[in-house]
Amino acid sequence: METWLNVGLGLLFLATGLANVLLMYRIWGYPYDKAKLKSKAPRSLVLTHRITGYVFVLIYLYLMSQMLPRIWHYQIELPPRSVMHLTLGLAIGILLIIKIAIVRSFKHLESTLVPALGTGLLICTALLVGLSVPFVLKEQYLSQQAFGTVLSQSNLERLKTLLPRAGFPPGADLNELASVSGLQQGRQVLLSKCVQCHDLRTVLVRPKTPEAWLQTVHRMADRAVIGKPIEPRERWYVAAYLAAISPDLRQAVLVKREEELQKQEAIETVRQLPKGQRFDMSVAKQTFEAKCSQCHDLPAPELASVAEVKALVARMTDNGLTASPEEFGQIVFYLSANLTSPTSASSR
């Protein structure tokens, strides 16, 4: 519920900022009495502009009250998106302070600086909401899609056999923890309270046993000194939920490991290509263009030796290039035939 509240407030924050700036542009179109430091715009328009400004500030203060404690207590280095989020949030606060100070105490600057400050606030607000709301909606959607497999009957039965050996206290209702409603409650605790100190990617980095999850949840909850505390019963629910999704985490780890192994095998294939291997030049060129043009502009890069060619292809393989051993050979052959150094080319 809190997630959707913040999403709604974020969208309202952007809408209020847009309305406030449009009203500002309208008001600044009226004559301004520099002697009295007062606009001749209709009072109703000025009042509406002031009200939207108050709403904007109140939403900003609430959102920052949610964000700053979470970031202060974050237990690892902040991800880049969170750094940008924090930077934009602080920038909005600085611009608001300057704008309010001018409107209240330095009215002689109002007609020249306030429009620029208002536009800057709108830009920062749009970037802030754009960096948060779409990603939250995507995470919620993917999480909801994956939650269906967690609630399968086979997984619930598996969980009921594992939880009694996980070390839950006698007061824990294990049947309730392994039920649909219990897992839904555990998921809600994870999404609303565990993210106070963690990015979900760090929480769900690898699978654990139910006993290990319970110990981890207790340890993390005991460290929390600010924000919303995780009550003992909530710890049980979130530990049960994490145990329920561990098979999915294990599968994700296996897939990632398989991808890494395939990538390393491809890199070794490139490095061990035999010297003097030859292919039809037209076929090699077609392979090069088909594979390398997916990410790069053609023509071929300027390289001076076969060693540079192999190093480049190996690096591109590490970046995601996929090909068969024969295709790798064709790419290396084509690039080696187009070396920029005649001396190096003749030494192949």
Can you describe this structure?
This protein folds into three domains: 2-131; 138-255, no CATH class; 273-346, no CATH class. It has 15 helices and two strands. It has helices spanning 2-27, 43-72, 80-105, 110-130, 133-150, 153-162, 174-177, 180-192, 200-203, 210-223, 232-271, 281-292, 306-318, 325-336, 342-346; strands at 32-33, 38-39. A two-stranded antiparallel ribbon has the order 1-2. Strand 1 (32-33) and strand 2 form a beta hairpin. The longest helix is centred in the last third of the chain and has 40 residues, at 232-271. The termini are far apart.
How would the blueprint of this fold be written?
Layout: H1 2-27, E1 32-33, E2 38-39, H2 43-72, H3 80-105, H4 110-130, H5 133-150, H6 153-162, H7 174-177, H8 180-192, H9 200-203, H10 210-223, H11 232-271, H12 281-292, H13 306-318, H14 325-336, H15 342-346
Helix pairs in contact: 1-2, 1-4, 2-3, 3-4, 8-11, 10-11, 11-13, 12-14, 13-14
Number of helices: 15
How far the N terminus sits from the C terminus, by CA atoms, comes to 66 Å
Number of strands: 2
How much strand content do the residues show? under 5%
Lateral strand order in the biggest sheet = 1-2
In this structure, how is the largest beta sheet organized? 2 strands, antiparallel
What would the principal axes of the Cα set say about the shape?
flat
If you average the pLDDT, what whole number results? Answer: 80
Please estimate the helix content.
over 70%
User: Structural class from helices and strands?
Assistant: mainly alpha
Number of domains: 3
Low-pLDDT segments: 342-348
Q: Any idea what the radius of gyration is? A: 29 Å
The helix/strand series, from N terminus to C terminus, equals HEEHHHHHHHHHHHHHH
